[in-house]
Structures
1.
Amino acid sequence: MSVVFSGLRMFGALALVGGSLVGGLGCTGEFGEIQARPKVLRPTTVELSEVSAPEPTVQAPDTYRLKEMTKTAVVKPLVSYPERDFDLSEVRWTVPKTMAVADLASQWGLPTKMLRKLNPALRGRKRVREGDDLRVYAADLAAPTRSLGAPNRGKLEGGVPLPEGDSWRLRQRRVRVYGNKVMVESLMQAFEAYGAAFTGAPEVRLGDLSNRTGGRLSPHKSHRTGRDVDIGYVLLPGSRGERYWQRADEQSFDVEKNWFLVKALIETGNVQQIFMSVRLQKLIMPLAERELSPEQMARYFRRANPDPRSPSVIKHWKGHLDHMHVRFRCEEGNARCVSRSR
């Protein structure tokens, strides 16, 4: 910064009054901080010519660099999900074998009249043929899906059936495949990510969700509001029998695939709780520690959380060696949904 004084006049003369002439003001640096004032220039008895003051220097804080401030940090996601929207305005089903219309309706927990209303082509027909493509659910905008009450003392309005998919397997009888949209969409998202990550992997086996209208579902204490689901563990090749549910142990439990499945469910952001045997938790925790920070480990696992007041997603519950129990959060804005059991 330089200040030039030459031939200063005011109406022909300039009187220098006692005091000092300040040769500059504090500058605002690159980060908006006020810098130290430059050297003060005092008047002299000689003609003032160009006087140079050193430019104030600005030093960025040690933890920052100006170029770095313009960059956006890129954090690799724990799970890559397929980029697509799930259309649950209707759910369709391919009939596996010829049967009576009434039997098909019963298999989905639907009144026969409702099944015919969903499929006008069935009017007057008593039987459906193998390979028929039927609609088993249509969204009703006037009666949206809602979870009402607590998981163990509630019901479900307008339940959505979990559709069929390439990476998961439903039981043949579909009476208990209903849930709220948060759960159904999150399950499809996680299962498709699993299928994309492990080509040709065993299908994820699904147990009970809820009835179409919720309520008591024997033998469960919960599963009443469309927010709970039982998911079988992925077992190693050669260890899966014909039984739908099978106990897992250190020899049969597929650590890599089960860890991915748990992670894919949690990272949807919609899982409230996972009940899983501590014996099987111990098998996936070493893999989890390679990917998660200590804070994330505490958020995932109760066993890794030193603060008993801080919630964790995965906790031990007896009776979960052959499946995990996953509970999803309430829908956004649903004041009639109670988060926890009473």
Note: Residues 63 and 69 are 11 Å apart (CA to CA).
2.
Amino acid sequence: MNEPKWYYFNGNNETIGPFSKAVLVELSQAGQINNETLVFKEGTEAWQPFGAAFTQPPEPEDLPPEPEPLPPEPSPSPVAASAPTYTTARQNRDAKKDGSGYFNNLVIIFVIGLVLLLIQRPIEQEMKKKVAKIDEEQLEVQAKRDRENEELRKEKNREMMRRYIRAFPEGR
């Protein structure tokens, strides 16, 4: 089989070749040509980019011959083929009768609920402690404000008494 020859067009307006397909691929790997370099294959009508020429499926003459088909496998005996199917169907039927699938689902749900409950309790206790601490802090702040307000009220009363005494000195 005579391999077609390839040519490429360089940047100096020159056609370079002929090359085999393998040599053209080597030139690409060496960096002398790239996917945009125009190439031409003997027997075709047009130039095309290297990348397009080598990403298309190979032409029939480039393909290796098809392998011979394998001989058909012997068919299994009817008895051997039906035995596993019967056993599997029987196991499925028995599993549905005893309700083990339902029981397994209940156990899984119970375990998940138990885990969630065990996780929730410490979180709930921690939240209660934080709320109690915040309440305690708010009570302390309110008590401080009440003391300050009481002091201000007493001071205002003293100031009013002083003014009264100054305004009416003989009324003592």
Note: The two ends are 139 Å apart (CA to CA).
3.
Amino acid sequence: MKNQDPMSPMDNQNFVSQLSQFSSLEQLITISEGVDGFNGKLKYLNEGVDYIATLLTYAGYLPGEEGEEGAEGTTEGEEIPATVDEPAGA
């Protein structure tokens, strides 16, 4: 609109068409930003699940990779010490 020629204005149909395209683009950008935020949260969730699985493997509750056994001397129901820190920037 800023560069529109005042002596030859755009017809209403073209104006409405461009306006709807800008609106659609704005909605797509908002959706994209939401998906990016969701992906970031999933990354932290996956890291947490991997950490817990590592603790359980070390404590002997889950088998290690390629047939390795977990740590010896643990019993079922034994408490596993763990701390969960907030991810940076959360």
Note: The chain has a mean pLDDT of 74.
4.
Amino acid sequence: MPIPVKTNPELVHTIFELKALSREHEAPIWRAVARRLEGPRRNWPQVNLSRIARHTSKGAAVVIPGVLLSSGALGFPVTVGAFRTSAEAAKKVAAAGGHALPILEFARQHPKGTGVRILG
């Protein structure tokens, strides 16, 4: 096994598990998310709630291979998986009736990746 470039053990574990989940369930979405997380952190998307409100609808499942931030308002429930979520963004998602989950937990809830959109 090659020496990982990333030094964050949680990130390395998440990338490994996403790739394994992709192989196990034949879901290419999780390999695509893992590849985005392997890239430089400065290239990770920083998605605000306003973007989620613009590009999704009620009950949507969204994965963000980066950071979820709290700017904007969310008026309907969505399930969001992100590597990192700000505390204020998690509060706003919960207030709208949705869930903000860590990306690995989100992937385990949606192993096939059907109905999941990548934002960012």
Note: The mean pLDDT is 95.
